[in-house]
Amino acid sequence: MLQFYAAVYNRALLENGLRIRDKMAVVTDPRSFPKRRSLFQRLGITKYAYISIFDSVERQTALLRDFKPDAIKGYASSLLILAAEINGLEREIKPRLVFTSAELLEDSSRKIISSAFDAELFNLYACSEFSLLALECKAHDGYHINADSVLMEFLDGEAVASGEKGMVVCAGLYNDVMPLIRYELKDVADPSEGKCSCGVSLPLIKSIEGRADDFLVATDGRLISPTVFFPYPFDSVDWIRQFRVIQEGRRKLVIQVAPKKAPGAQSRSQIIEAAERKIRGLFGEDMEVSFDFVDEIPLEPSGKLRKVISRINSGKRFRLS
To answer: Please, are residues 151 and 174 in contact by the beta-carbon 8 Å criterion?
Structure first.
């Protein structure tokens, strides 16, 4: 089974331009480092370097400089942090390809990462239960579902129509040990009946909205997708390095802000006031909004950086309508 899932992953990488002899740097949680090298690695045909996301940015950058990868794969948030450092290295790190996975990738992060590495970026949609579920192709017009390894449904009480949002439910087609049938991933995505211009006939997902648990709730009960915060409400602010939205209660939002430089008092006040107006306009005028300025926004124990967190009891049945 592991060999099959490895083949599914490698198919996605090779389809998007990776070459057998390319050097690949994988920036990930060290707990997922392979226990032993593959046969191709032992024979020197493929060359992989595994870099811990818990290492300092300086050490990660140094390892990348030494390894000189042709391709880099990692969490979107990890590569976004690296991108800020890479920008000042005068093209010392020059991958041809960048692959992101394990997290929601928003357009602003895609542009920053792709620009910093000066490389084409492909996003992969995967989970631990079914390995690689879907992949971007060179057309970058959605995600091709690996229909030969997983059956995917999109439900909101019942199957949703093309272009509508639904919970992702999967059945694995290659697992003789512990078959998973109609397994709910807690992710939200919208399927598409369209045909991709790349010519591949695999079914498509138009977009991936994120985890259902990270949907926020307006004061009138509407569900707010986490994707609205990329980069809203700080659309044109250059002094904010990172921010995170936390819903502490049905009528309370906390916005953590990690500035990359100290703004003027007047500028900061105006930007925060404008951001608060935008948030109240989206969530309701009676939503309490507070801003918490921090030096760093902490990573999750997994090493990922969750940008939107809901602490409301999620025992309610998730409904998009």
So the answer is: no
β-pair type (183-192, 216-217): unpaired
Last residue of one domain, picked from the residues 180, 212, 244: 212
Q: Is residue 132 part of a domain?
A: no
3-state SS class at 54:
coil
Look up the domain containing 269 and give its range: 215-310
Give the residue among 257, 9, 30 at the shortest CA–CA distance from 133: 9
Instruction: Kindly report whether the global pTM for this prediction surpasses the value 0.85.
Output: no
Could you report the per-residue pLDDT of 101-158, keeping only the tens digit for each? Answer: 988 888 888 988 999 999 999 999 998 889 999 999 999 999 999 999 999 999 988 9
180-193 pLDDT, tens digit each: 999 999 899 999 99
Report H helices in 54-155: 57-67, 76-86, 107-117
3-8 long-range Cβ contacts below 8 angstroms, 24+ apart? 4/149, 4/174, 5/131, 5/132, 5/149, 5/174, 6/38, 8/131, 8/132, 8/146, 8/149
My answer on whether 99 and 190 are in the same domain is no
Task: Categorize the per-residue pLDDT at 39 as very low, low, confident or very high, splitting at 50, 70 and 90.
Answer: confident
Structural tokens at position 45? 């045909």
**Residue 59 sits in the same domain as residue 103:** yes
Terminus-to-terminus CA distance in the chain, angstroms? 38
